[in-house]
């Protein structure tokens, strides 16, 4: 299953490392990444593929926990839901 992970918060060192480490621990394959910093605010979007049989809710919760530990908000959505919500 493909997912979209969004990360938002005040910029500081270690955000990318923490989130990608959490993904790697779950054997999630990162497909695409975009990130930017605007007036001290960090944003990152990740397109990723969950491994076969992975539990979506467990991975989402672990990513949110990793984000909370470093002071950023992390959301994960199924790619088809994300695409439907952002199409005209």
Q: Any overview of this molecule?
A:
By secondary structure, this protein is α+β, with helices and mostly antiparallel strands. Helix content is 38%, strand content 39%. The protein is built from three helices and four strands. Strands 2-3-1-4 form a four-stranded antiparallel β-sheet. Helix 1 runs antiparallel to helix 2. 23% of the residues are buried.
Give a short account of the largest sheet: 4 strands, antiparallel
Which structural class do the helices and strands define?
alpha+beta
Helix count from the secondary structure assignment: 3
Q: Give the overall silhouette.
A: globular
What's the number of structural domains? 1
Strand order of the largest sheet: 2-3-1-4
- CATH superfamily name? ACT domain
**Topology-level CATH name:** Alpha-Beta Plaits
Mean pLDDT: 94
CATH architecture: 2-Layer Sandwich
Low-confidence stretches: none
- What share of the residues lie within helices? 25-40%
Distance N to C terminus: 23 Å
What fraction of residues sit in β-strands? 35-45%
Report the CATH C-level class.
Answer: Alpha Beta
Radius of gyration: 13 Å
> What is the H-and-E element order?
EHEEHEH
Number of strands: 4
What's the topology here?
Layout: E1 2-10, H1 15-25, E2 29-38, E3 41-49, H2 56-70, E4 73-78, H3 79-85
Antiparallel strand pairs: 1-3, 1-4, 2-3
Short description:
The protein is an alpha+beta fold. The protein is 38% helix and 39% strand. It has 3 helices and 4 strands.
Characteristic key phrases:
Alpha-Beta Plaits, 4-stranded antiparallel sheet, 3 helices, 4 strands, 38% helix
